[in-house]
Each structure stands twice: as structure tokens, then as C-alpha cells.
Amino acid sequence: MSIIEVKSLYKIYKSGKEEFMALKNVGFSVEKGELIAIVGTSGSGKSSLMNILGCLDPVRNGKYWFLGKNVDEADENELANFRNTNIGFIFQSFNLLPKMTMLENVALPLVYSNFDAAERLKLAEDVLVSVGLGDRLHHLPGDISGGQRQRVAIARALVNHPHVLLADEPTGNLDTQTEKEILVLFDEMRKKYGTTIIIVTHDEDVAMFADRIITLFDGFVYGDINFNQYIRPGKAATT
To answer: What pLDDT does residue 235 have?
Structure first.
């Protein structure tokens, strides 16, 4: 069974009497453990699709199944609970709280789970160690590099062991070498945790690191290429 499946998906924005169709008859499925890049130029529908896949926006037109559940039938509260349980988010701007340590930032999502304070900190420490930051637990975000901050953001997204990680331009603020390190880390984390990773990007080098590239153009799925049977230049360049 696919972990994600969308069918006949449309997204329509209204402004007065005007309508803009951001997504048009979008359909595809995602298997567990895939590393997918969703690419397209500005205005192609990438952000609209990410918001729907991440359960940030409701499905008004079309069908969306996540682990067999009809997400399009969920109300706002159900979407929030489903999102918090199943999906981790990584953003270009890191979104770390500046007055909290790395350990506290990563433990924050667990406040909404049934863990006491000691358990939350232990789980946060374990995942920080797994992303190579076991010696930075008590540093503040301002005391570490951009690449390290993105590693913390990845750890925070993984601490709940979500089924899917959604990464929005996750390397946009990083230099080329750090970008490669973060992409390798994504690959390591999906192999370790079995997490499905979807990267939304306009960067061709980032996209070529993925197993599969879904291209959006003017709201349509213009291309869907799986590179699993081929040598991937982006991944070869990072090893």
C-alpha cells in the first residue's frame, strides 16, 4: 500500500470574483521510504501541493489518502492531530527558537505527546546524536553554523518518528559543501528510520539527489521520473 496517494487534486484560490487554479488534476502515489523531489518554477504549484500533502490546507477538490486514511474527509482538528502524529517539517529558515538550546528545540514537539520531561530530553538527545550533534546539545542556535542549525531542524522533525518528512527548500540558505552534507544526511536518516522524504525545491542539483523527480508546471504534473534503475549524478557527486 502506498503511504501517500492523491487523485484528481485541484487547488483554487478566490479573490472577489476572480479565481486562480494553482493545482490542476494532480495525481500520483508515494511509496514508503522514497526520497522524492517536487520541482517547478515559481507559480508552478509547489507550495500549494506541499501545504496539502502536509495537511496544512484542507482538500477541497480531489482525493488524498495517507496510509489508507481519507485525509480529504478530515475536519480542521483531525487534520492538526494527523499532521502532528505523522508528518515532520523542515524549512529553509530553520525556525529554531533562539533562546532555547538545541536539546530544548528538538524536544519541543514532544510536549504534545505523552512523555514526561526526562523522556522528552532523552529522545531529543538520541536523535541529535544520530545527526552528528551530540556535542552541541546545550548550545543556542546563534552559537552554531547554518549547516548545524539545519541538522537540528532535521532532528526536531524526526523526534516524533513521523512517517513522512516534508522539506521546503531545505538547503536554500547553505553553501554548496554544506548542502551536499545535508542531502547525504537525508539519505542516511531515511535508511535508518524508514522515513519517506519529500523535498520541495527549484534547485536542480538538490532534485538530482532524489530517487524520483515530480515536475510541476502551471499546476499540472508535467513529469514524474524514477531514477532508481539509473546512476544518479547528484548522489554520485556527494559520496
So the answer is: 53
Region of 20 on the Ramachandran plot (φ > 0 left; ψ -120 to 50 alpha; else beta): beta
Other C-beta atoms closer than 10 Å to the C-beta of 128 total: 26
Helical residues (DSSP H) of 131-239, grouped into ranges: 146-158, 176-193, 204-207, 233-238
* Other CB atoms within 10 A of residue 140 CB: 16
Q: Which three cell numbers stand for residue 78?
A: 483531525
Whether this prediction's pTM lies above 0.85 is answered by: yes
Contact 2, 29 (CB under 8 A): yes
Q: What's the pLDDT tens digit per position in 49-84?
A: 999 999 998 888 999 999 998 988 888 888 888 888
- Averaged over 146-171, what is the pLDDT? 92
Q: How far is CA 50 from CA 46, 54, 123, 167, 201, in A?
A: 6, 6, 27, 9, 11
Q: Are the beta carbons of 220 and 24 closer than 8 angstroms?
A: yes
Task: Provide the 10 A C-beta neighbour count for residue 14.
Answer: 8
Q: Taking the mean position of all CA atoms in its chain, how far away is CA 211?
A: 15
Top-confidence residue, 132 or 92: 132
CB 130 within 8 A of CB 192: yes
Task: Pick 4-238's CATH classification: 3.40.50.300, 3.10.129.10, 3.40.50.970, 3.10.180.10.
Answer: 3.40.50.300
Cβ-count burial 57-96 (b if 16+ within 10 Å, e if not)? eebeebebbbeeeebbebeeeebeebbeebbbbbbbebeb
Q: How many residues does the chain have?
A: 239
Residue 8's DSSP bridge partners are: none
